[in-house]
Design brief:
about 55 residues, mainly beta, about 0% helix, binds zinc ion
């Protein structure tokens, strides 16, 4: 049995708690590109989807 695993990363969207601008961080922890503040709130997409495909 051959099993293939595919990890799909969903681009995260964060919102700065200081200037309330939304942005997509390139890395997990990144400063706000608008004002440089840290500690943004993650709005969506902080998931890694693990897909498995089984071929018989
Ligand atoms: Zn900001």
């Amino acid at each position: 049995m051959h099993v293939e695993l595919t990890i799909r990363r969903i681009p995260a969207e964060q919102q700065c708690m200081v200037c309330f601008q939304k942005y997509h961080p390139a890395q997990r922890e990144v400063a706000c590109p608008h004002c440089g503040a840290r500690g943004a709130k993650v709005i969506s997409g902080e998931e890694f989807f693990l897909e498995s495909t089984e071929e018989k």
